[in-house]
Amino acid sequence: MQHKKSPMVTIIGASSVGTMIEWYDFYIFGSLATIISTKFFPSGNPTAAFLSTLATFAAGFVVRPFGALFFGRLGDLIGRKYTFMVTLLLMGGATFLIGCIPSYETIGFMAPVLILLLRLLQGLALGGEYGGAATYVAEHAPADKRGFMTSWIQTTATIGLFVSLLVIMVTRSTLSKEAFDSWGWRVPFWVSILMVLVSYLIRKNMEESPIFAKAKAAGKTSVNPLKESFGNKYNFKFVLLALFGAVMGQGVIWYTGQFYAMSFLEKTMNIDKVQVDSLMFIALIMGTPFFLVFGWLSDKIGRKWIMMAGMLVAIVSYRPLYEKMFQVTNAKNKQEVVASTTTTGVLMQRADKDFDSVYTTKKTFTDGTIYTEIKTIPYKNGVAEMVDGKQKISSAVTLTITNKDKWSLIWLVFVQVLFVTMVYGPIAAFLVEMFPTKIRYTSMSLPYHIGNGVFGGLLPAVATYLATSAKTAGDGQWYLEGLWYPIGVAAVCLIIGLIYINPKDKRIDD
């Protein structure tokens, strides 16, 4: 059978667009975590609801290795093309349904249960997607351009986050705050189904990978990819090396630069959500081309040293960078215009017919920063609610920052995105070159998704827990304590990678 060869532009484009959409689907949940926590979890404890949302977000990451095993096996048995078409449809369907689930107020505990189930389906689908797309592009690419061509796949995770922020920003700007909080947050989930259908039609017309098609025609594909990948001691050694010597560190650096940074700006520094989305958006635009730069550079000087250098600079820079970020908006560094401070109070009726006393305090600083604090005191049957003998009070602070501070933060996030591009740009080519054709999809997918899905995906919840615990304990630099998680994981990975990774084997037709 003669194989019809597709242009590389088509191959890279079709693979990248589909993968980008899957990332979009996956990340709108994280980008909307704050509002989701108020819709699908019991009210009364915003911190607990937010941590529950992060845990549900993390659950999608934890199951990704199982998706990698299931779909990786299919990809090595029946081919790359059909497998990642299935993952695309599974992801799109789950995302659309998340946007349709009634709130906790309507269906009670079924709301978080359904959210968790759909989140798990998203994780399974994503577990099967990346390995297929990276393998498919690598098996078409010339050997001396493999790093550059697969680096387009590496841009999709960032572009997916970028597009999710864009769709959310557009939706927010076209609706009132009340409408967005009520139902508008569902729109980004519904939009997904249109993008998935377009991508499905593009992928449907793609050809199978030539290297896999050749192996299949010669009867050299695996009959049991799982056993040959993980039951063979020689191959399993490379699976472990890929995980602990490269992907584990890459995963935590990716999530620190692109997700923890966003959470830090919003939850720790209390910056207005719209401003956070905007500055993340700009930093990602500035940083994304460097995935291609470092992918290209890895074809010239090797994958290993670029990835190791990225881990090293991240390890030594994270605490100074986040200290600098925190101090940009620290009120202690600013001068308050005392005469402009106002406090107003209103009595607001809740859905259960009881009342909240809501006090809004506004302060202005000489540089233009605006501080808004809303304190809510709930009443039941006319009496203020008590917790542990004290009056129950919830407080929310929002900072509206100046353009100067905004650009300072953009540069500080951009530097972190650069670290991400160093460790992430070359990694698809690096993983593909570690394993033989007949078990490549299975063997590379598992370490990739354990490293990213487990070590990286748990980062927001673990780091938030560490920082919250340090704050409760009275640590003066509590806001930096969450960083010990990515620093520790990346340091272990750097040592293993430096000692054991052999950068010389680049054949993929074995």
UniProtKB/TrEMBL annotation:
<keyword id="KW-1133">Transmembrane helix</keyword>
<keyword id="KW-0472">Membrane</keyword>
<feature type="transmembrane region" description="Helical">
    <location>
        <begin position="47"/>
        <end position="70"/>
    </location>
</feature>
<protein>
    <submittedName>
        <fullName>MHS family MFS transporter</fullName>
    </submittedName>
</protein>
<feature type="transmembrane region" description="Helical">
    <location>
        <begin position="238"/>
        <end position="258"/>
    </location>
</feature>
<feature type="domain" description="Major facilitator superfamily (MFS) profile">
    <location>
        <begin position="11"/>
        <end position="506"/>
    </location>
</feature>
<feature type="transmembrane region" description="Helical">
    <location>
        <begin position="82"/>
        <end position="104"/>
    </location>
</feature>
<dbReference type="GO" id="GO:0022857">
    <property type="term" value="F:transmembrane transporter activity"/>
</dbReference>
<feature type="transmembrane region" description="Helical">
    <location>
        <begin position="278"/>
        <end position="298"/>
    </location>
</feature>
<feature type="transmembrane region" description="Helical">
    <location>
        <begin position="110"/>
        <end position="131"/>
    </location>
</feature>
<feature type="transmembrane region" description="Helical">
    <location>
        <begin position="305"/>
        <end position="322"/>
    </location>
</feature>
<keyword id="KW-0812">Transmembrane</keyword>
<keyword id="KW-1003">Cell membrane</keyword>
<dbReference type="InterPro" id="IPR020846">
    <property type="entry name" value="MFS_dom"/>
</dbReference>
<feature type="transmembrane region" description="Helical">
    <location>
        <begin position="183"/>
        <end position="202"/>
    </location>
</feature>
<feature type="transmembrane region" description="Helical">
    <location>
        <begin position="152"/>
        <end position="171"/>
    </location>
</feature>
<keyword id="KW-0813">Transport</keyword>
<dbReference type="InterPro" id="IPR005828">
    <property type="entry name" value="MFS_sugar_transport-like"/>
</dbReference>
<feature type="transmembrane region" description="Helical">
    <location>
        <begin position="409"/>
        <end position="432"/>
    </location>
</feature>
<feature type="transmembrane region" description="Helical">
    <location>
        <begin position="483"/>
        <end position="501"/>
    </location>
</feature>
<feature type="transmembrane region" description="Helical">
    <location>
        <begin position="444"/>
        <end position="463"/>
    </location>
</feature>
<dbReference type="InterPro" id="IPR036259">
    <property type="entry name" value="MFS_trans_sf"/>
</dbReference>
<dbReference type="Pfam" id="PF00083">
    <property type="entry name" value="Sugar_tr"/>
</dbReference>
<dbReference type="InterPro" id="IPR005829">
    <property type="entry name" value="Sugar_transporter_CS"/>
</dbReference>
<dbReference type="GO" id="GO:0005886">
    <property type="term" value="C:plasma membrane"/>
</dbReference>
